[in-house]
Each structure stands twice: as structure tokens, then as C-alpha cells.
């Protein structure tokens, strides 16, 4: 992940930069302490005197002691005086085994610079001491003439020791790119830059590194954005990568480098990568769970929508089926009513023919006797006969009228119906059948007789049905009494018809209102009367029910709504 590498490298680079500036400050500070000292000591009279008379032993001894004392005071490594030829004539280490006395340093640039009149500095590995040091030098002038050089050598080991140990390595390279200060001893005198012939020649001329073996450090440099990455292979063959930062110390001509091992950066990157990958995985997992949940919810929702649509479709289907069936039922009912009426007509035709034949025979008799009476001039009696004939004809006409009504399909609206009026018409129809059965109908409508909300023709049809049934039920029985009562209570009027027949057995009570249910023999009953009656009463908003009287016989009850006879007019389409 390059962005991670970049961010960690940026951070490491900042850390390296602060280490670097600390190292540079420490180095400068350390060297600055000695900078002015050579010139100061060059001005010392004893030293000058020694240079004027180098052969004098006391002067040498004085100078030697003086230099040793200052050296101890200043905590420098060595202080020594050279004559014009570069030979050391006094030194702080005069009494040590590796004393500089007698050594000639004319090849050293610091000598050459100072003898030419310039203060100089030089870094080198001591040829005599084999210790690395930083040399400060100054010309010694006697009356304006340069007669010798004083040099100051400062040990760099302590500077190195002050560098912090840790992930970062501090190096100092000379202008030729050779490492002369390093926390890592292995890297000393190794070149960061290729050791070209010129570089080697320059280094050898100054004998800067004495007899030390120079080599090239196996380094390869890469860049990552604005960061320099250095891979260094150590002597043991391991290669490490470092983030490198450097700063040039102009005065000394040195370059201070800070190398920061990227291993920790790499491991940070690895940790962060793992963390990111893990969190991405977690987030992905979370997202997946969310998406699955959403998909499930969507699926559920669409299933619900589908189920709802299906339900609505079914409801619609059922509704239209129901409407169709209702329509069919209504048509069938109407057909059945018609059929039942015709059947009833057929049933009654025998009784009716008797009803018609009897008055017809009577009319015939009256007419014949009227003719005889008129021939005999008994016109008064004859006209009495004629009026009897007229009555009989009227009766037959009225019977015919009712039968025609009965056969007609009713198309009437509901309205107030007066029970006495309906019963009068009903009786005209049922009377022949009741007479044939030998039944006696007793009517008690109360006073005043109730007015009900119904259609007169259809109510009459219902009454004809149940009265005819009652006639059937009492036929041949000892008690052939049929009682019809009407009672008003609150908003309802109950018309009850009780007979003294066998009653309705409980097993069939629930089925007698079913179409085509009949206990009567073939050709006698169609089983439609009660079902039609039931539906008619329902159409009126009322109830038709059956019960058995405790004292025997069936009781059919018609419950209808009371109608206000004053405010409503009858709208029967008869
Ligand atoms: P049907 O008279 O043509 O049989 P209904 O629908 O009028 O058809 O009557 C159905 C049945 O109800 C009759 O067959 C009969 O068994 C029974 N039923 C009707 N009225 C009475 C009654 N008053 N007493 C006993 N049974 C009755």
C-alpha cells in the first residue's frame, strides 16, 4: 500500500531530520570549542621563542610542559608545534611512547595551509597515534614572518560516543564520500561514493587515513517520492534498507548522514496493512450482512406485495364469481318461483275445476229455471235468479283474477300492507284446498290489525304456501283446526300459523326450507313452497321460522317490520 509507505516514511523522515540536526549541532558545538585555540597558543611567547631558537633544550622542555598542561586542561587529544619544515619540535605527548617529536607532518594539508598563512582544519587518522582526530592548525608568526605551525588534535571518539544508540545510525563522510565517523565500526573508512582513482590519489596524498584499508560500502540507492532509501549489505551478508538524510557541514567540508532502519517502518506498514485489510474485511462482512438483510427484507416485501396482489386478485375473482352466482341465484329463484306457482296451479287445478264447475252448474241451473220462470211470466223470481247468476259470475271472475295474479311474475316494491286485505285474497285461493281437506281456519289479527312492510302479492303467496301446507298436515286428522294470529310488538309484527298436524320432526326441521325438500309423495309436492316463502320473507327484511307447539302441531312464524299506514302509500305493482 504505497500511501501507507509514504505516510510512514514521511514520519520516519521527520524523526531522522531531528536526529540529524541534533547530531550536526553537537558536532559543530564540539569543534567550535577548539576553533580559536590554535591562534591563541601561537601567540604564546614561549612558543615563539622556541621557534626562534629550536635547538635550545630548556625552551623545548618549557614548551613541552606548557603544551601538556594546556592539553590536559582543554581535554584535547594532542597539541604540537612544527617548524617551517614540518618537523615537530614540541608536543604535549613528548613523554609518551607514540610521541610526535621529530615527526614530520609537512604532507598534511593542515600544515601546508597554516605555513601558507591560513588557519586550517583537517580530519585524519593519526599516522603515529593511529587514532582518528580533527586537526586545527594556525601559523606561528614572529615579527610578521611565519616561522612554524601549531596544531591541535581533537579526538572524535567521544563525539561518536555521544551519539544516541537506536534505530538511527549517524555517519560522517569526508568530501570524498569516505565514512570516518560511524557508530558502526565496520563502516569506518568505507566509501559511500565509488572510490575513483582521483579520489584515492587525493586521499593518499594527504595520508588522511594513514594505512587504513579503504573499501566501497555495498550500497544501492533508490528513491521513493522525495525520500532516499539506501540498501547496505553488511560484512555478514545481511542487507538492510535505511531511510537516509544528510546535511553538509560547510566549515569542515563534512557531510553528516542519518540512516534510519526501515525495518520498523516496514513492520508498521505490515501491521497497518493487516489492520486495514482486517477492517476492510470486517466492513465488507458488515456490508454483506446489511446487503443480505436488505435483500431478505426486499424479498419479503415483494413477497408480501405479491401475496397482497394475489389476495386482491382472488378477492376480486371471488367477488365477481359471487356477483355472477348471486345473479344466477336470483334468476334461478325467479324461475323457481314461477315454476312453483305453475306447479301450485297444477296442484290446485283439480280443486279449481271443482270450484268453477260448481258455480257453472249453479249458473246453468239458475239460467234454465229463469227461462222457465220467464216463460211462465214469473219475472220477479226470474230476475232473482239472474241476480244470483250475476253474483256467481262475479265470484268466478274474482277467482280468475287471483289466479292470473298468482301466475304473473311479481315486480313490486315494498310498502305497507294491510293484513286483513291480503288474507281476504289469500283465503279465496286456499279455500278450495282447505275445504277439500276438511280443515277449519280461525283468524285472529288483533285490534287494530297490524300493517306490515311487504309486497302484497308475495306476502299472499307466502300465506298461500304455509296455509296449504297446514291443510295438508291436518288432512285426515281428528283435530283439523288451523289458527292464524298476528301480534304487533315494538317495530315487529309476528304472524303465526299453528296447525294440529304431526308437527315437523326435529331431524328434518333444518331442511324443510331447502329447495326440493319434500316428504310428500311423487306428484304431490315439489318441495319448493317453503324455500320460496323463506326467500320472499327474507326479501321483506323479515324471518320465516318453524317450531313445534308444546301441545302438538307445527307453528310457522313470519316476523315482518311494522309499517306506518298514515305516511306511506302502497306501491304495489299489481
Ligand atoms: P311441499 O309442500 O311441496 O312438500 P314445502 O317446501 O312447502 O314443499 O314443504 C316442505 C316440507 O316441509 C313438506 O314436504 C313437509 O314435510 C314439511 N312441512 C311443511 N309444512 C308442514 C306442516 N305444517 N306440518 C308438518 N310438516 C310440514
What does this protein look like?
With 574 residues, the protein is α+β, with helices and mostly antiparallel strands. It has 4 domains: 33-155, PAS domain (Beta-Lactamase), CATH 3.30.450.20; 159-261, PAS domain (Beta-Lactamase, 2-Layer Sandwich); 350-408; 411-574, Heat Shock Protein 90 (2-Layer Sandwich). Helix content is 49%, strand content 22%. It is built from 13 helices and 20 strands. It has helices at 2-35, 37-42, 45-52, 57-74, 109-115, 157-162, 197-206, 263-375, 379-407, 419-437, 456-474, 506-509, 529-539; strands spanning 78-83, 88-91, 120-125, 132-142, 145-155, 168-173, 179-182, 190-191, 215-216, 219-224, 227-233, 239-249, 254-261, 415-418, 440-444, 451-454, 481-489, 492-498, 543-548, 554-561. The strands form 5 sheets. A 6-stranded antiparallel β-sheet has the order 7-6-13-12-11-10. A 5-stranded antiparallel β-sheet has the order 2-1-5-4-3, with helices on both faces. A 5-stranded mixed β-sheet has the order 15-17-18-20-19. A hairpin with a 4-residue loop joins strand 12 and strand 13. The protein is rod-shaped, with a radius of gyration of 72 Å. The protein starts with a helix and ends in a 13-residue tail after the last strand. Residues 465, 469-470, 473, 499, 501, 504, 512, 517-520, 525-531, 554 line the site of adenosine-5'-diphosphate.
Euclidean distance between termini CA atoms: 101 Å
Largest sheet: 6 strands, antiparallel
User: Widest sheet: strand order?
Assistant: 7-6-13-12-11-10
Which class do the helix and strand fractions yield? alpha+beta
Indicate the CATH topology of the largest domain.
Heat Shock Protein 90
Q: How many domains?
A: 4
Ligands, deduplicated: adenosine-5'-diphosphate
The counted number of beta strands is 20
Fourth-tier CATH superfamily name of the largest domain? Histidine kinase-like ATPase, C-terminal domain
**Corresponding CATH architecture of the largest domain:** 2-Layer Sandwich
Number of continuous helical runs: 13
Quaternary structure type: single chain
Low-confidence stretches: 566-574
The portion of residues forming beta strands comes to: 15-25%
Q: Return the CATH class of the largest domain.
A: Alpha Beta
The residue-averaged pLDDT reads 86
